[in-house]
């Protein structure tokens, strides 16, 4: 299974190598999509975890037992193509390469699977072609 989740770390555990434990002890693949972690402060990461279902559940139980709050990434960014004028403003600010100007057509394409739900494109788009859905 493969799932995107949000991890919230209390200040007391932000320095612990949780990614290492998930890989080494639970045989999971961890792809960090977004991280906002500072020593001794509350932290938040968005990760995509893949592996065997039992290993996944054991890994999540381990995180929760150490005080990490685990939430599903339920929010999704959608591209409303008919509103898009292909101005390219979103492709400049997208940190994940999810919005790309395709050449030679010079039209914008949205790669949903790369999106890390940072929401930058919501305010950057003059045509309201990017929306967050829950
Ligand atoms: S929310 Fe928008 S700017 Fe952020 S990664 Fe997704 S497509 Fe790119
Ligand atoms: S900023 Fe909006 S209108 Fe411009 S290319 Fe991106 S989605 Fe389309």
* Overall CATH architecture of the largest domain: 2-Layer Sandwich
Multimer state: single chain
Identify the CATH class of the largest domain. Alpha Beta
> In total, how many beta strands?
8
Name the strands of the widest sheet in spatial order. Answer: 2-3-1-4
CATH superfamily of the largest domain: ACT domain
Mean pLDDT: 90
Task: Report helical residue fraction.
Answer: 10-25%
- Order of helices and strands, N to C? EHEEHEEHEEHE
- Total tally of structural domains: 2
Over the alpha carbons, how many angstroms does the gyration radius reach? 17 Å
Number of helices: 4
Straight-line distance between termini: 21 Å
Rough outline: elongated
Biggest sheet architecture: 4 strands, antiparallel
Q: Report the bound ligands by name, code or SMILES.
A: iron/sulfur cluster
CATH topology of the largest domain: Alpha-Beta Plaits
Give the structural class.
Answer: alpha+beta
Poorly predicted sequence stretches spanning 5 or more consecutive residues: none
Q: Which strand-content bin applies to the residues?
A: 25-35%
């Amino acid at each position: 299974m493969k799932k995107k989740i949000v991890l919230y770390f209390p200040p007391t555990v932000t320095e612990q190598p949780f990614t290492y434990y998930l890989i080494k002890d639970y045989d999971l693949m961890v792809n960090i999509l977004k991280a906002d972690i500072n020593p001794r402060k509350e932290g938040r990461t968005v990760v995509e975890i893949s592996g065997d279902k039992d290993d996944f559940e054991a890994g999540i139980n381990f995180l929760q037992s150490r005080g990490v709050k685990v939430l599903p990434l339920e929010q999704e960014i959608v591209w409303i193509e008919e509103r898009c004028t292909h101005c390219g403003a979103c492709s400049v600010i997208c940190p994940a390469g999810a919005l790309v100007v395709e050449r030679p057509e010079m039209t914008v394409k949205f790669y949903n699977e790369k999106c890390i739900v940072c929401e930058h494109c919501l305010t950057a788009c003059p045509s309201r072609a990017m929306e967050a859905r829950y």
